[in-house]
What does this fold into?
Amino acid sequence: MEKLKSLDRITISQQKEWIEILSGFETQNKYVVSDDAGNMIYYAAEEDSYSLFRFFLNNLRPFTLLVLTESNHDVMRIIRPFRFFFHRVDVVDAQGTSIGFIQKRFSLLRRKYSVFDSSGKELYQLFGPMLKPWTFIIKNKDIEYGKITKKWGGFFNEVFTDADDFGVIFPKAWDIRLKALFIGAVFLIDFIHFENQGTESGMGSDIDDDESDEMDMEVESE
It folds into this structure.
């Protein structure tokens, strides 16, 4: 995870296979994690899961995502247990030691998540404003430290596929293990809010120009 040390923003891009685009049959998710210059840092791949899980549970399915270097060395794993409510992912390092977990919070109108360390101490919250459905603000005690933003991918991607790109901003001074937790948060958010949304959500037509510029915000460091 040392490659995260000098970074204050990353991009996580889902890689959509053409057979899935054309057939509508979803294969295991794959992602590329890049720095601000577009250089690949890691890639992530969903471990093979039972087809019945994918077919019947869809975006509720349990999964394990492997985060790997270009030379296939383990960096960390994001593990999602099956839950109908209060969805959660656990983030562990290459040795299987817990880094922490992210869990969805109860809310009638807002999208809220809590980010915990390995001891269960709440570190930060992710808050989704009602009028910005593609944005999740990283907060603690009403102080904003960064954000996760689903980036507009163009008409073809948003309408005909569910391939997603996310930008993540956080303070450069943060510990790499804390940064790793927010990588895990991206994958949970993607599965819960954007998986298989292609033709159903219609959100693409509602995105405003400000959303595409949100990666330029200045982040208050801790």
